[in-house]
Write a structure and sequence with these properties.
The structure is a single chain. This protein is α/β, with parallel strands linked by helices. It folds into 2 domains: 70 residues; 211 residues, Rossmann fold (3-Layer(aba) Sandwich), CATH 3.40.50. It is 36% helix and 21% strand. It has 9 helices and 12 strands. It has an 8-stranded mixed sheet with strand order 5-6-8-7-9-10-11-12, with helices on both faces. A two-stranded antiparallel ribbon has the order 1-2. Strand 10, helix 6 and strand 11 form a beta-alpha-beta unit. The longest helix has 33 residues.
Length: 294
């Protein structure tokens, strides 16, 4: 073999060279030393390249406020996911209520949907839509049990008491989308002080025998279905139930058969609430005004 004869090893060329008349592979100490030197050199080269790329990026993106943003990004730490919520006034393993004050005597209980696409944290739905036109209690079913686990009655009463302590003349409405819509209907059923209820694309039935196979990974965990379905007597509340015509046909028919007032919007599916907000804000605004008691 010549002094520089390449030998293929795992797709790479390795040179066996002689040193003082002996092949390197017969001098293990020298072989290890060369390996260490090579590793250090590659590490240094990577550090220089990475630093240069960062400096070039910073120079290219020199805009007002970018330095602050970049610094925050570097200093970012894991934060409490509930820090974006209002004041937590009630918390158990089953339910959480956050509160945001608003103007006047109107109080709205806003029931959170499952929000499976949001990484786990159920956000305060309808926060922007309701704004400061009312004081709002955002009620989350943390286990996504469709208000079956634990005692949703206790959570609702905690919100009612908190509101009346602040405003003895408070009046109440309820709102929710999807699973939250089902929660709003439960609230209207068990709390007679709720006078308006808006349920957008609510589930009528999430039992395993229901003709709907969505959300099964949560539905199979429900140990007891406290509500045979969500077409519940509404107490003193005026009810509006909204559906898109393109989906939820079976769920919609349960409410219609029970005599509930159902409004159906052509060209929309389960996301009818968001679509109306974006495409027909005049209709959406009237729905929000309904729950505000206007």
């Amino acid at each position: 073999m010549d002094d520089a004869d390449p030998v293929v090893d795992v797709g790479r060329s390795v040179l066996f060279m002689r040193c003082s008349g002996r092949p390197v592979h017969e001098s293990p100490g020298l072989f290890v030393s060369l390996g260490i030197v090579g590793t250090v050199a590659m590490s240094a080269a990577w550090t220089i390249w990475s630093t240069s790329r960062t400096l070039i990026t910073l120079a290219t993106l020199r805009k007002s406020g970018f330095g602050v943003m970049f610094g925050r990004l570097l200093a970012r730490k894991k934060t409490d996911p509930t820090s974006s919520l209002g004041e937590i006034i009630y918390s158990t393993s089953d339910y959480r209520i956050s509160f945001r004050p608003g103007r006047g005597q109107r109080v709205v209980l806003a029931f959170c949907g499952a929000q499976l696409s949001l990484g786990g944290l159920q956000t305060e739905e309808f926060r922007t839509s309701l704004g400061e036109n009312c004081s709002t209690y955002f009620i989350a079913d943390l286990k996504r049990s469709w208000w079956n686990d634990g005692r949703i009655e206790d959570a609702i009463q905690a919100a009612i008491r908190h509101a009346l302590d602040r405003r003895p003349d408070a009046t109440f409405g309820a709102i929710g989308n999807s699973m939250g819509g089902s929660g709003a209907l439960v609230a209207a059923h068990i709390e007679h002080r709720i006078d308006r209820c808006l349920a957008i694309a609510p589930q009528a039935d999430v039992s395993l025998s229901a003709e709907d196979d969505r959300w099964m990974n949560y539905r199979i965990r429900i140990q007891e279905h406290r509500w045979p379905n969500f077409a519940l007597p509404a107490g003193n509340a005026g009810i509006k139930i909204i559906f898109g015509a393109d989906e939820d046909e079976w769920q919609r028919q349960v409410f219609i058969s029970a005599g509930f007032p159902v409004e159906t919007y052509e060209g929309y599916g389960h996301s009818v609430g968001r679509k109306l907000r974006d495409d027909h804000n005049d209709i959406y605004s009237r729905l929000i005004e309904f729950v505000l008691g206007k």
